[in-house]
Amino acid sequence: MSPTTPDYLPLLPLVELADCSAQLPRPTMASIVSQEVRVFRVPDDASDTAECSARFGIPLEDGANTIVLRFKKESREQSAAIVALADRRIDVNGAVRRALGAQRVSFAPREWATEQCGMEYGGVTAFGLPRDWPILIDTRVMERTRIVMGAGVRSLKLLLRPSTLLTLPNASVHDLLKT
Questions:
Q1: What is the pTM of this model?
Q2: What CATH number is given to the structural domain containing 25?
Q3: What are the beta bridge partners of residue 50?
Q4: Dist. CA 3–CA 95, nearest whole Å
Q5: Helix H segments across the chain?
Q6: CB 163 within 8 A of CB 142
Q7: Residue 168 buriedness (CB in 10 A; 0-12 / 13-18 / 19+)
């Protein structure tokens, strides 16, 4: 890690990718295997963003959440994901709708989202999503040195540079905050 290594890094129970590959959803594993991504274990009582931040001393502004959306564009229902910092409120019906060029945007139902992603609720990550989904990344995510985000399962988290998100298919950066 570089001189900008987060202070909380020594507190994270890091694991080798090979040691957790059986736990990760296959598409997630395939998506991160060649990236500079660190994986760490999270106890069940610390898997939610706020609890994870408190347990490991991770500032909330380093926590990034992936949210699955459904949207209507050109009379077709489609899917997308947004990646935003945990301490921010996203403008879904304004900025996100405009970025997608959508007529209507809504949060995907929990069961549908987990089935389509092949990931656990509360652990959804941008890594391993269907390749045709747009992934909108809020500009504030890109301003962080490192981010912590879900790994597709609630028992693991990912630590990475935000620029790694730009390697994902259909990933783009937008100002998505509520003003």
A1: 0.93
A2: 3.90.960.10
A3: none
A4: 35
A5: 17-20, 26-32, 49-56, 97-100, 110-117, 139-142
A6: yes
A7: buried
In a domain? residue 109: yes
Residues recorded for the chain = 179
The boundaries of the domain holding residue 155 are 9-174
22-52 residue pLDDT tens: 999 999 999 998 889 999 999 989 999 999 9
146 pLDDT exceeds 70? yes
Could you tell me if residue 84 is inside a domain?
Answer: yes
CA dist 179 and 169 (Å) reads: 28
The verdict on residue 179 lying in a domain is: no
d(CA 129, CA 151): 11
Q: Structural domain tally of the chain?
A: 1
Q: How many helices (H) and strands (E) does the chain have?
A: 6, 9
